């Protein structure tokens, strides 16, 4: 754990520090809606949040890092709330997938101005943030046996199974992130349900139906 991470962990137990963290999160979201995160200076951020530079560095190393953590927390919260409402263990996996995915896409839509700061589309950093989020979720769903991707004949030993887990997760995650990227670049079709229906229609069968993997 780095020095910043130690300070952040300690700060999380201090109510005053949490208030400062909340102000910093609000400020970085506000600033990131008008400019790319890479162009937000620490001076501008602490001024907008009304905290000291030392306080900022107790929470993050850079404004871009703080933004990434804030957006990731929002995506995680949307996913977790949807999971509580309709779990992935539901008999109707497609319905559960749609419910969770709609919540995550709605969280992105609520921050559209931030995600659009990458010159009309996702910046490389925000694209990676989304793909990492989705990859972790897909991998967890496979490990938890909610989904069973195809096994490739002749490549079913432990090393290949481990690599396949990462590759299947990455394949789907980048498809999600790529679709979101393109959606943000088409303001004439802003509906979340349009993107949701498009993604679900393009997903492989094993992502939506239990026991659909081909062996």
Automatic annotation (TrEMBL):
HTH tetR-type domain: residues covered: 18-78
GO molecular function: DNA binding
Superkingdom in the source lineage: Bacteria
Stored PROSITE patterns: HTH_TETR_2 (PS50977)
Keywords (A to Z) from UniProt: DNA-binding
DNA-binding region: 41-60
InterPro entries for this protein: Homeodomain-like_sf, HTH_TetR
Name of the protein: HTH tetR-type domain-containing protein
Organism this protein belongs to: Subtercola boreus
Lineage: Bacteria, Bacillati, Actinomycetota, Actinomycetes, Micrococcales
């Amino acid at each position: 754990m780095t020095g910043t991470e130690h300070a952040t962990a300690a700060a999380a137990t201090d109510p005053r520090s949490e208030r400062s963290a909340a102000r910093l999160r609000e400020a970085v979201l506000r600033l990131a809606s008008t400019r790319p995160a890479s162009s937000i200076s620490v001076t501008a951020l602490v001024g907008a949040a009304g905290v000291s530079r030392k306080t900022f560095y107790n929470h993050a190393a850079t404004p871009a890092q703080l933004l990434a953590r804030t957006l990731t927390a929002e995506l995680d919260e949307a996913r977790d709330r949807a999971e509580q409402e309709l779990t992935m263990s539901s008999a109707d996996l497609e319905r559960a997938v749609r419910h969770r995915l709609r919540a995550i896409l709605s969280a992105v839509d609520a921050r559209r101005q931030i995600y659009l700061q990458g010159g009309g589309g996702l910046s490389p950093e925000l694209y990676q943030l989304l793909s990492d989020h989705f990859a972790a979720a897909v991998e967890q769903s496979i490990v938890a046996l909610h989904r069973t991707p195809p096994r490739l004949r002749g490549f079913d030993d432990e090393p290949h199974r481990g690599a396949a887990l990462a590759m299947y997760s990455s394949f789907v995650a980048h498809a999600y992130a790529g679709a979101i990227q393109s959606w943000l670049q088409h303001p004439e079709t802003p509906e979340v349900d349009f993107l949701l229906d498009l993604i679900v229609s393009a997903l492989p069968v094993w992502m939506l139906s239990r026991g659909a993997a081909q062996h």
